[in-house]
Amino acid sequence: MNILHIDCSPRSESHSRQLSAAVAHKLLEILPHAQIYRRDVGYKPIPHAGAAYATALSTPASLAAAGRSADALLLAEQLIQEVEYADVIVIGTPMNNFTVPSVLKAWIDQILRVSRTMKSSPAGKIGMLRDRPVFVCIASGGVFRGDRSNQPDFITPYLSAVLGCIGLKTVHYLPMQATAFLDESRAAALRSSLVATIQPEMVGLVHSSV
């Protein structure tokens, strides 16, 4: 069993980092023989897609000519293989201006690739990757879900759409909200309550593929 743990916050003690670490620890209790592989785009941001990458993906012919070994696609191929190797994925991210931070968007732009992780059909995009559980730990200074929500939620429908289009449909959201108003004891209690929602059956592998 392999767990891919991704963090997106630039702050070492951020709420999203602490929550994703607690989730990873919980998963190790459920899957004691699992190994964790880290991709920290908060501390080490990956580059945004450049001209060479955009050119390679611009047409089916240019993509076919580039192939997987082209320099422009090497990073994307590495990131895609990390996802393929994982049985469970944990993503810790802040909500930045109603949606994902740019470092997570850069990761998304590299792993969504036609003819590699998704294919087009008359009905829309079809995922080419095997489904697996994804736990998304979101920290927000405000409230975007539930009865007390006072701002729009663009982050969860967006992530559901982009992950779903490559085949990752089993997505669990753990929202840590109103962090701007939490002291450490209340934050710790909220983290514990969110982690407690993770049950063994939630990490069972999904073997079906599209």
Could you explain how this protein is built, in words?
It catalyses: N,N-dimethyl-1,4-phenylenediamine + anthranilate + 2 NAD(+) = 2-(4-dimethylaminophenyl)diazenylbenzoate + 2 NADH + 2 H(+); 2 a quinone + NADH + H(+) = 2 a 1,4-benzosemiquinone + NAD(+). Keywords: Flavoprotein, FMN, NAD, Oxidoreductase. Its cofactor is FMN. The chain has 210 residues and is α/β, with parallel strands linked by helices. The chain has one domain: Rossmann fold, CATH 3.40.50. Helix content is 35%, strand content 19%. It is built from 7 helices and 7 strands, in the order E-H-E-H-H-H-E-H-E-E-E-H-E-H. Helix 6 links the parallel strand 6 (134-139) and strand 7 (171-176). The longest helix has 16 residues, at 15-30. The two termini are 22 Å apart.
Strands, count: 7
State the distance separating the first and last CA atoms.
Answer: 22 Å
Give the CATH class.
Alpha Beta
State the major sheet: 5 strands, parallel
Low-confidence runs of at least 5 consecutive residues: 205-210
What portion of residues belong to β-strands? Answer: 15-25%
Count of runs of 4 or more consecutive helical residues: 7
Estimated radius of gyration? 17 Å
Average pLDDT, to the nearest integer? 92
**CATH topology type:** Rossmann fold
Family: Belongs to the azoreductase type 1 family.
Enzyme class: oxidoreductase
Binding site for FMN: 9, 14-16
Catalytic activity: N,N-dimethyl-1,4-phenylenediamine + anthranilate + 2 NAD(+) = 2-(4-dimethylaminophenyl)diazenylbenzoate + 2 NADH + 2 H(+); 2 a quinone + NADH + H(+) = 2 a 1,4-benzosemiquinone + NAD(+)
